[in-house]
Specification:
Layout: E1 3-6, E2 9-13, H1 15-21, E3 25-30, H2 36-44, E4 52-58, H3 62-70, E5 74-85, E6 97-99, H4 105-115, H5 120-123, H6 129-147, E7 150-156, E8 159-169, E9 172-180, H7 189-201, E10 207-213, H8 217-225, E11 229-239
Parallel strand pairs: 3-4, 9-10
Antiparallel strand pairs: 1-2, 2-3, 4-11, 5-10, 5-11, 6-7, 7-8, 8-9
Length: 248
C-alpha cells in the first residue's frame, strides 16, 4: 500500500525510512478537520506489519494535536523553521569552505553517521539510535549524489570536517542537512558553513531557510546570531503498533 486517503487523513508510504526502521513506515498528513475517529480509521487501514507512522503538525494546532495524542501518537520533537533574507549580490565563500567534490563522500558520510543527535529518529527513545545513524549517513550520500542543489564542505588541513547540503525551490534556498564532525564542534565551523550558503545563494534566492529542533540549543543560537528569525514551529509525532489509544 503506497498511499491511502481517508476523508481528512492521508497516509503515504516512506520507502527510504523503511529501509532503516525494518518495516513499513508511513507519513500521515491531515486537514484541520481531522479528529480522533478519522485518525483511528486511517490507522486501521494499515497492514499489521507497519513499524512507524509519523505526523508533523503546526505547534499551535491544539485540537489536532489532542486528536493525535488520543490515538496514541507521541510528541517527539518541536521543529523550528528559521528564515533569513539574502543579499542581492553573492560574496566569496568564507575561508576554509569550498564546494564538495568527488572523494568527499567518505568523510561526509562518517560525519552524517555520528554528528546528529537531536533529530526525531534519535530523539525517540523507543528506536535504536543506530537507525538514525544509518538513515542520516544514507541521506548525506543521497544529497551528495544529486538530491541537493548545492553541497558545501568545511576543510581543515585537507580534512573535511563539516558540510552544508542545500536545496533550492524557486526563490527559497533551504539547508537540507548541516553538520560538523564530532570533536570539531563549537569552533565556528557551523557558522562558516551557514554563512557560506547565504553567500552562495545571494542574488539567486530571496530567502534562506533552516530547520532545527527546539532542544538543539547550539543550533538555535547560531541561526539567531546569523540574522535568521523564527517563522514557524511544528511538532513531530510518532505512532507505533501497540501505542495507547490506537484501537488496533
Amino acid at each position: 500500500m503506497s498511499a491511502a486517503a481517508l476523508d481528512t487523513v492521508r497516509l503515504d508510504a516512506q520507502p527510504f525510512d523503511a529501509r532503516f526502521v525494518g518495516g513499513p513506515v508511513f507519513r500521515m498528513t491531515t486537514t484541520d478537520a481531522a479528529d480522533a475517529g478519522r485518525i483511528r480509521s486511517a490507522l486501521a487501514t494499515l497492514d499489521k506489519a507497519v513499524k512507524l507512522v509519523s505526523a508533523r503538525v503546526p505547534a499551535g494546532a491544539s485540537a489536532l494535536r489532542a486528536a493525535l495524542e488520543a490515538c496514541g501518537f507521541v510528541a517527539i520533537e518541536r521543529l523550528v523553521t528559521f528564515e533569513r533574507t539574502l543579499e542581492s549580490l553573492p560574496g566569496a565563500l568564507p575561508e576554509g569552505v569550498r564546494p564538495a567534490r568527488p572523494g568527499d563522500e567518505t568523510a561526509c558520510a562518517a560525519i552524517g553517521r555520528t554528528a546528529f543527535r537531536f533529530d526525531r529518529y534519535h530523539a525517540d527513545a523507543r528506536l535504536d539510535p543506530a537507525i538514525g545513524d544509518a538513515l542520516k549517513e544514507a541521506w548525506v550520500l543521497n544529497d551528495l549524489a544529486g538530491r541537493a542543489e548545492t553541497c558545501l564542505v568545511a576543510v581543515e588541513a585537507d580534512e573535511v570536517v563539516g558540510f552544508n547540503l542545500c536545496l533550492l525551490a524557486g526563490e527559497v534556498a533551504t539547508i537540507d542537512l548541516i553538520a560538523v564532525a564530532t570533536g570539531r564542534q563549537g569552533r565556528g565551523i557551523g557558522s562558516r558553513l551557514t554563512e557560506a550558503g547565504a553567500r552562495h545563494y545571494a542574488g539567486r534566492a530571496r530567502a534562506y531557510r533552516a530547520g532545527t529542533q527546539a532542544t538543539n540549543a547550539p543550533s538555535m543560537a547560531l541561526y539567531r546570531r546569523l540574522g535568521f528569525r523564527a517563522v514557524a514551529e511544528a511538532v513531530t509525532y510518532h505512532w507505533m503498533p501497540g501505542d495507547t489509544g490506537s484501537n488496533r
